Amino acid sequence: MTEHLLKPQAKPTPHPTAQYWRKCQVEELFNLPFLDLIFQAASVHRQNFDPQKVQISALLSIKTGGCPEDCAYCPQSAHHKGVGLAKETMMDIDEIVAKAKIAQSRGASRFCMGAAWRGPKPKDIETVSKIISAVKALGMETCGTFGLLEDGMAEDLKAAGLDYYNHNLDTAPDKYNDIIHTRQVADRMDTLGKVRDAGLKICCGGIVGMDESRADRAALIASLANLDPQPESVPINQLVKVKGTPLENAHDLDWTEFVRTVAVARITMPRTYVRLSAGRTQMPESVQAMCFLAGANSIFVGDKLLVTPNNKEENEDSVLLAKLGLTAEEY
Ligand code: SF4
């Protein structure tokens, strides 16, 4: 066993993109024999992180449903009438802070808040700024996912105490308009630029299992890895098929393809936190363990991810982490 497998290095800081990843290079990684790919990813993970530590986040939908965007995977879109999800108003700030305290007591160091908007209006920024400040005062990292931002909004969120802004690239650039018709990849990139310029950290990932090809998955990972600097956090989501959405009958993704996606994300973004995100309820513990071996080092805790189920039992994650000898990373 080589020395780097035994001696994890100190907690890393984000770094500029070390190389430009061509899509074909990323596909070559995907095409490696499975165990070679996992070994390579695990080695990269150990060179850059303590492999026994997992960053724990919690995600809350603070304004649910009625979104004007038409993301095919999302039950919160107002376009998908068959879902039957009611449009709600903004949650009360005290209720949000109470949820953040519960998450913190369960080991979460970061509290992520989502609102189902195309983008916030100026008065929405005022509202979420108060919420962000209240959550930040608990001593947690804060993350927001509020959609497309206008000039100056990212700066306002930063001033309120926001640490991370989540804005996913969703899928491969060439497949984007198969999944979403109400915005373009360029809109996403524009907001990501504003977020970086404001000095916020970026959480940016995508979803697999949306009937995409391996080449599409490679293109998504290449897009993420070529962001410069690379995102500090990359959530890899497996589609949760919700009845009434256009993707309710998508084909199941083989578990090895999901693990491969995690592994390739780890290799191409060595110092990024790779989050095993949506879809964990459908994954046996053994597959989740394989994802950790392949370089995933962040999870969401709690019973819901926005509006779809997460691991159900309150202590399900702590049992899994204990079995694997993993512990929560402290903020
Ligand atoms: S993913 Fe976000 S932007 Fe898309 S429909 Fe759902 S809430 Fe709206």
In short:
With 331 residues, this protein is α/β, with parallel strands linked by helices.
Count of discrete domains: 1
What is the third-level CATH name, the topology?
A: TIM Barrel
Oligomer: single chain
User: What is the succession of H and E elements?
Assistant: HHHEHEHEHEHHEEHEHEHEEEHE
The average pLDDT score comes to: 90
User: Treating each run of at least 4 consecutive H or I residues as one helix, how many helices?
Assistant: 12
Helix content: 25-40%
Give the N-terminus to C-terminus distance in angstroms: 31 Å
Write down how many β-strands occur, each being a DSSP E stretch of 2 or more residues: 12
Q: Largest sheet at a glance?
A: 10 strands, parallel
CATH class: Alpha Beta
Radius of gyration: 19 Å
| CATH architecture classification name | Alpha-Beta Barrel
List segments where confidence is low: pLDDT < 50 over at least 5 consecutive residues. 1-12
Dominant shape: globular
Measured by DSSP, the beta-strand proportion falls in 15-25%
Q: What's the CATH H-level superfamily name? A: Aldolase class I
Distinct ligand kinds = iron/sulfur cluster
Instruction: Give the class from helix and strand content and strand pairing.
Output: alpha/beta
Topology:
Elements: H1 3-6, H2 23-30, H3 34-48, E1 53-63, H4 93-105, E2 110-115, H5 122-136, E3 141-145, H6 153-160, E4 164-166, H7 176-179, H8 185-197, E5 201-203, E6 206-208, H9 214-225, E7 233-238, H10 255-268, E8 273-276, H11 285-293, E9 298-301, E10 304-305, E11 308-309, H12 316-324, E12 327-328
Parallel strand pairs: 1-2, 1-9, 1-12, 2-3, 3-4, 4-5, 6-7, 7-8, 8-9
Antiparallel strand pairs: 10-11
Helix pairs in contact: 2-9, 3-10, 4-5, 5-6, 9-10
The structure holds iron/sulfur cluster (SF4).
